[in-house]
Amino acid sequence: MKETILKRLKYWGELNLGLLLLTGSVYFFKAPNGFATGGVSGLAILISRISPVLTQASMVAILNAVLLLLGVLFLGKEFGWLTVICTGIYTLEMALLERFVPIDAPLTDQPFLELTYATLLGGIGSAILFNCHASSGGTDIAALILKKYTSMDVGKALLVTDVLIAASTFYVVGLKAGLYSLLGLFAKTFLIDSVIEEINMSKAFTIITTRPQEIEDYVMNVLHRGITVEKATGGYTGEDKTVLICVCSRMDAARLRRRVRDLDKDAFMIVTSSSEIVGRGFQPS
What we know:
The chain is an alpha+beta fold.
């Protein structure tokens, strides 16, 4: 029970961190500079430049409400209450920033510096949300609708919508903002993939040893991980050996490496990095 509560708290903590980073990137860096790197936030930036009647938060709320309605109509109610919750938190955070930290100009006179922070904060925030199997709604919903009614996959559909929004910056804001927007969009795309891989990074061990029992006990009783055991024969020596296969986190990997060396200095270890571990204790199948 306690473990379940801690997991839920950790999950919602990560979710809110992702939303906070995403909101900060838009409010402090993208909107003041006119960087529309896709998504509902980018579309809201462009519309507010054309018709500055509503605030950024109000525009985001309206656009997300329309897209959520379309999501229910075309995808059904099952497309996700989590998206509704994330959209509400994102809009609320934007409104609070507008209320208590008003900004009407860029923070610095260095647009490339601000684009860098906008890309880093937005990319890391989006990666955290995607890793939690959530999103802030927006053009993700449009991409899912496109996927359902066309042969286009979600990734391509999302890229198409974001490129169209970023390209519109050339006409609405100007050449410099348009170039920065496209640069930020492509940088964010690569950054999100890299951050997701880094978050999910694990270490896979293949250990060839003549003292398997002590290592097995350490992995299962101390690291609390599963392990696979195979019998083998050394090709050069002809000796009977045991091959142990297990996967653990990067922190546990350092401990396991030292323990194996203490137990069997002649053990042969192959350690590889992977962000695609599917199964119990890692990503669900």
